[in-house]
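Re: [ENG-882] Designed sequences occasionally contain unexpected residues at chain ends

Forwarding the minimal case from QA. Structure tokens:
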């Protein structure tokens, strides 16, 4: 072999120069970097899994059901108040003193969602549709006709199958007139000389709704407003003043299958009901 041929064999080819060495640092460094990366990914996945499994207490069944009330949707209550305020007749009702969110209990123990306004001269009870943003019915009760306010727990006849927890409030405006027999047994009768309220189910959702649904504060505001109107605009033949009594709120209903089903399914409220709707 000549000296030139020996130099050719000793010199590395271009392919050998470009081929990485299997024992060089380039092979070991990437492997060393991937190990902590995989460990961090595993730790991050475990952390995400643990965070996903941690269910807060607010997502209980009761809280989930409360969120189905349309009155809790953002902006809904404010829009309802604006709509109801527009229905106030300044000449007849005067200025608005306060607005309340209540549940009316009729003579068959049916619950119905209501917005209630106390003004200078009137007690306004509004049946408001929180889905369509419209007032479907407005009942106006002159405050100078209000003669009695009773508050306490609910009571039913001895043979009644119904019961109701919580406290109620009943406003009377004609103590001399008693409901007729036909009205008592007519579930759609509206000629009763009184109206009954109880707490709205969303009263404990926040401090704002707790204030709007406070029956005791409502009772005091109503009594004070009615007393002022009795002095300023007395009704001939009626005793001036408002009598406040702490006594059971009697509901003369016995079986009440319709009220049981209706109250359990919140049929008297603007309430989301899945695919059926409101």
């Amino acid at each position: 072999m000549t000296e030139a041929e020996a130099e050719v064999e000793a010199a590395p080819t271009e392919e050998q120069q470009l081929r990485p060495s299997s024992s060089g640092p380039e092979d070991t460094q990437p492997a060393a970097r991937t190990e902590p990366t995989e460990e961090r990914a595993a730790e991050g996945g475990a952390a995400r899994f643990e965070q996903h499994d941690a269910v807060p207490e607010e997502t209980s069944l009761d809280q989930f059901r409360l969120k189905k009330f349309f009155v809790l949707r953002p902006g809904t209550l404010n829009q309802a108040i604006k709509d109801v305020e527009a229905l106030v007749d300044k000449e007849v009702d005067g200025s608005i003193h306060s607005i309340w969110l209540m549940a009316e209990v009729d003579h068959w123990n049916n619950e119905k969602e209501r917005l209630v306004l106390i003004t200078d001269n009137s007690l306004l009870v509004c049946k408001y549709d929180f889905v369509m943003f419209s007032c479907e019915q407005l009942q106006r009760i002159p405050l100078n006709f209000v003669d009695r306010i009773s508050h306490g727990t609910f009571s039913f006849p001895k043979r009644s199958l119904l019961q109701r927890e919580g406290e109620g409030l009943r406003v009377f405006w004609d103590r001399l007139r008693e409901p007729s027999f036909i009205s008592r047994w007519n579930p759609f009768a509206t000629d009763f000389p009184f109206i009954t309220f109880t707490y709205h189910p969303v009263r404990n959702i926040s401090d704002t709704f707790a204030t709007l649904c406070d029956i005791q504060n409502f009772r005091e505001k109503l009594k004070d407003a009615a007393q002022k109107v009795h002095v300023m605009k007395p009704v001939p033949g009626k005793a001036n003043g408002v009598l406040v009594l702490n006594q059971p709120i009697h509901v003369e209903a016995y079986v009440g299958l319709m009220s049981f089903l209706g109250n359990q399914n919140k049929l008297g409220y603007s309430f989301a009901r899945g695919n059926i709707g409101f």
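QA comment: On inspection the terminal residues look reasonable. The radius of gyration is 36 Å. Proposing we downgrade this to a documentation issue.
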